[in-house]
Amino acid sequence: MIEVLWHGRGGQGAFTAARLLGAASSFADGSYALAFPSFGPERRGAPMRAFTKMSREPIGDRSAVSRANYVIYLDDTLLGEGWEDELLPDGKVIVNSVRSFGDPRIVAIDANGISQEILGRPIPNTALLGALCSVCDYVSADNVKRAIEGYMPAKLHEKNKRVVDAALEAVGKTRAAGVAVNTDESLKSQVIGSVSRETTKDAHFDAPASRGETVIPTLQTDALDPADFAHTTCYDGGYLVAKNAGWRNMRPVLDAGKCTGCLQCYLYCPDGCLFRPARQTADAAGTAAVAIDYDFCKGCGVCVEMCRFGALAMVPESEGDER
Amino acid sequence: MAMNAKNMPADELFFGHKACAGCGGSLAVRAALKVLGPNAVAALPAGCMSAVGFNFPQLCFANNAMITPFAATAAVLTGIEAGLRAQGKKPDDCTVVGFAGDGGTADIGIQALSGAIDRNDDVLYICYDNEAYMNTGIQKSSLTPFGAKTTTTPVGKNSHGCLTQKKNVFEIVAAHGLPYAATASVGYMSDFLKKLERAKGIHGTRFIHVIAPCPTGWGAPESKMVDLARDVVDCGLWYLAEYEGEQVSGVPGGTFTLNCKPREFASVRDYLKGQGRFRALSDEEISLVERSRDAKWEMIERDWA
């Protein structure tokens, strides 16, 4: 039995991908598949998991997958400490990311870039499905496309099939590159560029490497003191153990020079993530009337709509990191 | 001086919650607790705000807050208030406040609300209205407007969404003759803050019905949440009004006040077509929506102005 564990966020289509994969693997006679999601009580944007089990035998075990042959992350912020524990020996991780992760078991693909280019929206699920076909021989790309035709609305067929092809092509290139550099002991795992970012590839890939080491963000840690992350906005009565930062793929940035201090963003933020700094800080944002709590901002963009002076703008999360 | 962005307390009393990005309901709760302060005690029935606020161990209310049975929001408020008073533990600035959704207010919790008003218990009941049972995945409530698509009022060949009109909860509540009731919208925050302050200062049962758009359930971009909450008022499908009972106004039967009278309504079509839930509406059905709006405003101008 081949087991696949999907880590995604509500709204990214992880369960759809899990179902499509199950469908794709079960077209042949005598094939069986199971796909199901696991949600918490949280909302769109919150971490969730989905599972696909594929076998030539009837599948009796309907429980969640704790160790999988393939672990797929639709969002790289979900790839945190302990990821190895979910992987069977010889297992592979496929992650939607533009960063590199110094580990040959991790295949990174810019699925957001591919889907943004073709679908016009960063919905990475079918791109990762294409990447999986390339890494896992059990499922063919043709069957994945057949599953897309059978289980997605007709208007999405063509574009998603193109997404699968683009992902296959991107992973194919990397695998070829992987063979060529296998002798290199210091091999870093490859990051597969999106079709849209071919020209700016170097800039994108060099940025993380220049930091010297790979930083894998974690959403939950054991010791979080509200004073460390709520930046004075949080009244100390609440008890918070998890940030919401990983919910967003766009973030608001403030142009302090244009801010007039009207505070409409602060007034209308549903999460209370725009706050009035208690004291002047050294950085430029400290001179504006408001600052942004990136630990809890979900990237809804209400603040940008509320700003009449153009002082706030949404930028992709990957660019935000570089600022 | 009325509370505004510049003078409202910096403390966030509802923070770190797991609501969807751009959630109108969480903005309503955040704003209400800013006005009511850390000594307010909150009660929430089943609904989005209790589901996103109490993900143990992530507890997002800095205030004392508890979850109630679905039908019992107002009854639990009564109990909290009586209990605090009996123990002599109720500070002067302690407001006992309930945050219930539209289903928890207009469908499931209406008997408990009616009972609390009947007893004139000293509680504030806030209905954040996102126009469907969003917590369970968008089912119709009695505050879902005509034509809105939900999972129980689907759109297809034979049906174009919700067949019924939004229930007049504000007037139902006002008909009890309680001290204070108001409607508001999270898009008009200064009006909402003013009504919260007003309600805070009155003893007896108070009720605020605040429109709180749900981008997920309404099929609209998250960033447009506040704009939608303004548009619904501007196009006349929602109104900002207050009712002051005889205890407050001194007028037998109480008085209605319209706080905002649009000189000219914005386009209903633009408001409806900006949301996925109304996409299937035909021109004829849109004019039906406009006609029912006009009928409502005829009543408002005749009786309230």
TrEMBL record, chain A:
Source organism superkingdom: Bacteria
Residues annotated as domain 4Fe-4S ferredoxin-type: 250-279, 288-317
Single GO term (MF): oxidoreductase activity, acting on the aldehyde or oxo group of donors, iron-sulfur protein as acceptor
Transmembrane segments: none
InterPro entries registered for this protein in UniProt: 4Fe4S_Fe-S-bd, Oxidoreductase_gamma_subunit, PorC_KorC, PorD_KorD, Pyrv/ketoisovalerate_OxRed_cat, Pyrv_flavodox_OxRed_cen
Keywords tagged on the record: Oxidoreductase
SUPFAM superfamilies the UniProt entry points to: 4Fe-4S ferredoxins, Pyruvate-ferredoxin oxidoreductase, PFOR, domain III
PROSITE patterns in the record: 4FE4S_FER_2
Name by which UniProt lists this protein: 4Fe-4S dicluster domain-containing protein
Species name: Ellagibacter isourolithinifaciens
TrEMBL record, chain B:
Domain of life: Bacteria
UniProt domain Thiamine pyrophosphate enzyme TPP-binding: residue ranges: 47-210
A GO molecular-function annotation: magnesium ion binding
Matching SUPFAM superfamilies: Thiamin diphosphate-binding fold (THDP-binding) (SSF52518)
InterPro entries, per the entry: PorB-like (IPR051479), THDP-binding (IPR029061), TPP_enzyme_TPP-bd (IPR011766)
Record keywords: Oxidoreductase, Pyruvate
Entry-linked Pfam families: TPP_enzyme_C
PANTHER family according to UniProt: 2-OXOACID OXIDOREDUCTASE (FERREDOXIN), PYRUVATE SYNTHASE SUBUNIT PORB
Protein name: Pyruvate synthase subunit beta
Species: Ellagibacter isourolithinifaciens
